[in-house]
Write a structure and sequence with these properties.
The protein is built from ten helices and 16 strands. By secondary structure, the protein is α/β, with parallel strands linked by helices. Strand 8 and strand 9 form a beta hairpin. Helix 9 packs parallel to helix 10. The longest helix is centred in the N-terminal third of the chain and has 12 residues. The chain is globular, with a radius of gyration of 22 Å.
C-alpha cells in the first residue's frame, strides 16, 4: 500500500502546494481522498493513471476539495474509461455533479454517486472498509478511515505434516482459521496457524477542529493524515473556522497512539513549515510535513 500526496495546501494553492488530494494505491486500486483543483494534472505527474479501479471520497463541498472533479471525470471520459467509478461525499455532491453534467454531459463509463447518510461504514468489501465520522467544520464535513480486515496468521506446513493432515483443501481451511475433521478427529488451527495478523489503517481528517470522535477513529492507525492549517498563535482563528493547529493535530496523534502523523492543508501564510513541525514533534516525534508528490509505503504487519 502506498500513499501519494497530490495536494497539501490550505484554501489557497501556492507555487509548491496544490489543493487537497491524497491518493492511496492498494492492490492496483486507487482510493482518492478529496479532489481539489488540478488533481488530474498531478495524477499525470505522479503516473497514477486514469483507467484503473478507483473510488473517490470527498470530505466536504468547499472548492479546494471538490473543484478537481469536473476535469478529472472529463479526462477519464476522453480516455474511454471502462471501469466503474464510485464517488462518496456529503449531501449536495449529487446536485454539484448534475450541474456539471448539464454542461459537459454525463460520462460514458459507469458512475455511482453516493451521499453519506451518517457516521459509520460507508463502503466495505472482503478485504477492507471505509468508515466516516462527522468532522467539526463549516457545513456537512466528514473524516475517513480506510481499515483493512485482519489477514490469516502464518501457516506452518511442517506442523500440519506432523499431524498427518494432507496438503489440499484441509490446509486451506486451517489457514482460514477453521477446524477440520480427519479420521474422526477434529484438528483446531491453533498450533498450526498463528494468530490473525492485523490489517493496515489510514485515517484522513479532512478539514476539522479537534474532536474526540476523530481520536477514536484514529486509534492505533498506521498513518494519520491530519490538517494543520494554522500555527499555535492562531488557535482562536482555527477554532472559529473549523480548522486545527499543528500542535492540536499532534495531540490527537499522541492520544490515538498512531504510528505516524502527516500534517497537510498547510495555509499559504507559511512558506516555511519549520515552526509547525518543531511544535508538533515536541508532542508527537513521529510527525512529518506532507509535501506535494511525497510518497510513503505502508508495509504489511507481520
Amino acid at each position: 500500500m502506498k500513499i501519494t500526496f497530490l495536494g497539501t495546501s490550505g484554501t489557497m494553492p501556492t507555487v509548491d502546494r496544490g489543493p487537497s488530494a491524497v491518493a492511496i494505491i492498494r492492490k492496483g486500486e486507487l482510493i482518492l481522498f478529496d479532489c481539489g483543483e488540478g488533481t488530474q494534472q498531478r495524477m499525470v505527474k505522479a503516473r497514477l493513471g486514469f483507467g484503473r479501479r478507483m473510488k473517490i471520497f470527498v470530505s466536504h463541498l468547499h472548492g479546494d476539495h471538490i473543484l478537481g472533479l469536473p476535469g478529472l471525470l472529463e479526462t477519464m471520459n476522453l480516455l474511454n474509461r471502462e471501469h466503474p467509478l464510485s464517488i462518496y461525499g456529503p449531501k449536495g455532491i449529487l446536485n454539484f455533479l448534475n450541474a456539471i453534467f448539464h454542461i459537459l454531459g454525463v460520462p460514458d463509463f459507469p458512475l455511482d454517486v453516493l451521499e453519506i447518510a451518517g457516521s459509520g461504514v460507508i463502503y466495505s468489501d472482503s478485504e477492507y472498509r471505509v468508515e466516516a465520522i462527522r468532522a467539526n467544520h463549516e457545513g456537512e464535513s466528514w473524516s475517513f478511515a480506510l481499515i483493512e480486515y485482519p489477514r490469516p496468521g502464518r501457516f506452518h506446513p511442517e506442523k500440519a505434516k506432523e499431524l498427518n493432515i494432507p496438503r489440499g483443501p484441509l490446509w486451506k481451511r486451517l489457514q482460514q482459521g477453521e477446524p477440520v475433521m480427519l479420521g474422526g478427529k477434529i484438528f483446531q488451527p491453533e498450533g498450526i496457524v498463528d494468530a490473525p495478523r492485523p490489517g493496515r489503517k489510514i485515517v484522513y481528517s479532512g478539514d476539522t477542529s479537534p474532536n474526540k470522535a476523530l481520536t477514536e477513529l484514529a486509534l492505533e492507525a498506521d498513518v494519520l493524515i491530519h490538517e494543520a492549517t494554522f500555527d499555535d498563535d492562531m488557535v482562536d482563528r482555527a477554532q472559529r473556522d473549523g480548522h486545527s493547529t499543528a500542535t492540536q493535530a499532534a495531540e490527537i496523534a499522541a492520544a490515538a497512539k498512531v504510528d505516524r502523523l502527516f500534517l497537510t492543508h498547510i495555509s499559504s501564510r507559511y512558506p516555511s513549515t519549520e515552526s509547525l513541525l518543531e511544535k508538533a514533534r515536541k508532542i508527537f516525534p513521529m510527525t512529518f510535513i506532507a509535501e506535494d508528490f511525497m510518497k510513503i509505503e505502508i508495509p504489511l504487519k507481520s
